[in-house]
Amino acid sequence: MAKPKIALVTGGGTGIGKAIAAQLAKNGASVAIASRSRSHIEATVAELSAAGLAAFAVQMDVRNKSDVERGIEEIVAQWGAIHILVNNAGISGLTLIDDDDDSKWYDIVNTNLHGMYLITKAVLKHVPENSGGRVINISSVLGKFGVPGYTAYCTTKHGMIGFTRALALEVAQRGITVNTICPGWVETEMATLGINENAALQGITPEQFKAQAVAAVPIRRFLEADEIAELVGYVASDAASGITGQAINICGGQTMV
Description:
By secondary structure, this protein is an alpha/beta fold. The chain has a single domain, classed as Rossmann fold (3-Layer(aba) Sandwich). The protein has helices at residues 15-26, 38-50, 65-79, 103-124, 151-171, 189-202, 206-215, 225-236; strands spanning 6-10, 30-35, 55-59, 84-87, 134-138, 177-183, 247-250. A 7-stranded parallel β-sheet has the order 3-2-1-4-5-6-7, sandwiched between helices. The longest helix is centred in the middle third of the chain and has 22 residues, at 103-124.
């Protein structure tokens, strides 16, 4: 019997990341779940373990190189290798260009871009050659178009796609694929934050803004985290070995690019 693939999902304690971790575990992988918040990941690991799935909690700040390297060594010590990396850890927030405080810009860029780089660099040292290695980056449709007030977030999500395209060519000879998933609106806490921020910016209620957002999606609804997880599960599988360097939308038709 083949040994299970080892997966790492960053930001895996809640929302889309939690759904991805659960999907990969259901598909037979042993899943390490990383987050800054130990309470989030321990609760998720307990939930998966209770369902008979293999999961392991790793507290890690993706912005900190030494913390990342320590976390990766913990996983390797536990399971011996890593085959699948899902770069899901990310934050959002308004970063208006006339804001005197630059701290939110740096926090978003450091988490979403620098964190992805540091994790990927550390993980690739432990991916066996020609073992079906996968790097899957969770971007956004905001990696395909811009939204006023979200320059930092849009910059990082566009940057993830560029990183994906270049890295896919760099590691192709190792049998590793690199792809990006670009979700539209998904029913998560981060989406609720975005709805509240945009509503306040426009001077309308959150309910009014959400109605506008739904109306802009051709299928007339937000997606569920499980739908994103199903797609990630396929891209992580052996069946998707011919897909690399792609930025795949799952957005209800919100963008066609």
